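Notebook entry, structure prediction.
Reason for the run: the old model in the group folder had no record of what sequence produced it. Starting over properly, with the input documented here first.
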Amino acid sequence: MGFSEFLGNKRTIRALRGMLQCERVPSAMLFTGPRGIGKYTLARMFAQAANCERLKDDFCGECASCLRMAPLADPSELIVAGLAERGESADAATIERIPLIIEQHPDVWLVVPDPVRLRTPVARPMIRVGQLRAVQRAAYFQPLGRRRVFILDGADTMRWDDADLFLKILEEPPESATLILLAQSPDAMQPTIRSRCLQFHFAPVSAPEIAEFLKSRSELKPAERTLAAQLSAGSPGAALSLDLAESTRLRSGVLRLLENSVSGKKYGEIFAATAQLAKQEKESFENILALFYSLLTDLLEASQGSQSRLLRNPDLRREIDSLARQVDWRWVLQAARGLDTLEARMRHNIGRQLGLDSLLVSLGI
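New structure, fully documented this time:
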């Protein structure tokens, strides 16, 4: 039990333990990296270590403080309970008056993007004003233990104009509290907030390490563990939650879309497939776009005659090689720029299917 269980990013762990050992903990930290890389897990471990009753720079997992925080390892049930307590039909005023805060330990708060409802959640949960105001008030309370820790998962979902509330805490930071912001990219955070945080970017974990990690935590066969590790892009959490059959179906579908766009035919199939991707898949549209980028990266390597064994989609090598013979680097660059434009326009609520249709039709040769 302790930091030794965390996979990868050992330099970050050493830095965090050094802070605790020297009792020089910053008032705000920003953890960035892709989904599943371990940002939340390490933030939760830090909160336990900062309040462990037996150890100074680690956590035992057995003292009363550690046991109270143990349910935070998987907060999904706690989030469900919080939403149920607030009520399924909560209006906008109730949502702000009763913010979604997970508090298993009096000195440790978890703030997550509020889905508003359990049965019919909003399309894009976000951290709301009521949650930020609650953190702003509580941050200055004296801890019952050693240190107050506030974990803001999905900090990049807060509106930039709402983030000014949070900025007030960082400008006059409390001495006995630490705020840990979690985001996929530092650029997604307001510059004035980013500049006031000690930043840690989480590096990808090697595929062999992830495959070994999966051995004791999944029932996958050796070949499946290897494939899951390769598809995870260095994120242990992504590898652990990956449904290989579903992933293969989605990636094959995206690759067929690219093949049809190259031929400049079968528009009926293209439009039907984009409707499926935009409206009917369980996977978020943002993650589906990430699959497009992943396949385009492999296509670029293959179109240049690269014999790299480090394809991001090694199980689709034959199909990728076939499509690569029909395109060149200019086509891949055009497709990547089109995806960049689509992602940027999505921030202004452009129709997802319409934007994807336009992009694929433009790629015909």
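Summary: The two ends are 57 Å apart (CA to CA).
The old model has been moved to the deprecated folder.
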